[in-house]
Amino acid sequence: AEGMPRPEQTRIMIVANQKGGVGKTTTTVNLAASLALLGSRVLVIDLDPQGNASTALGIDHHAEVPSIYDVLVESKPLSDVVQPVRDVEGLFCAPATIDLAGAEIELVSLVARESRLQRAIQSYEQPLDYVLIDCPPSLGLLTVNALVAGAEVLIPIQCEYYALEGLGQLLRNVELVRGHLNPTLHVSTILLTMYDGRTRLASQVADEVRSHFGAEVLRTSIPRSVRISEAPSYGQTVLTYDPGSSGALSYFEAAREIALRGAGVFEVPESAPGTG
Ligand code: ADP
Ligand code: MG
């Protein structure tokens, strides 16, 4: 839609931050829905045993549902577990079930334990413009599988005290995986989440993040919004739950920025609240 560029090759984005509650899952599902609404084909891979991304996309993920666990541990083809997301054309999800909690341990003894997700994605035959991987809040083998599977790391940062604390560890892991397993890996995108422009703290954190990372930080930040936090309990993203809300508009704008940056365009005209 709207002449947004679609990537020539599938862009695989790993949404990671080992801190919990910073907006990884919220960012994964809402950016994915936005990119699909912009006309792309998008797959969300839920790699968190909590299955919050599956829930937020309205995807059944009770224990018997074929899931990303079967792909990683049982070598089931990804196409056997992918489900379409209702209400959003072009959006798909590989759900996580509670089984995935055991995978961190079960993977240890398997061959190619770090590259099982990469192989599964490479063998997937349906065309995709984007794969967004929602990581658990840890740096174990599940997250390593994600870091091996794609080139781009997207880090959501909550505009709070200690926002940058622990990021060093994630960045070192990115370096390690880049050095040993995946030379294409890099931090491509930083997104400021739960931004409250009325507080000095939020703007201080935003300044700190921008001076630390620079060009990787999206110009659009995501405001704190009740509509964003309500949507998952209806099995919806905010893009369908309340399309006119500031939360929906800001995720849509962030997705536009991501699509344009992928096409080499960094100067995105401002057009939505939550920008700047
Ligand atoms: P993570 O996946 O990093 O643990 P979540 O995406 O689950 O983080 O977000 C943590 C909590 O914060 C959830 O309850 C979510 O609904 C809420 N939340 C995330 N982003 C926003 C936002 N922009 N405004 C309001 N609440 C948000
Ligand atoms: Mg999460």
UniProtKB/TrEMBL annotation:
Organism domain of life: Bacteria
AAA domain location: 11-186
Transmembrane domains' residue ranges: none
Coiled coil regions in record: none
Family the entry assigns: Belongs to the ParA family.
Its job: May play a role in septum formation.
Protein name: ParA family protein
Organism: Streptomyces evansiae
Organism ancestry: Bacteria, Bacillati, Actinomycetota, Actinomycetes, Kitasatosporales
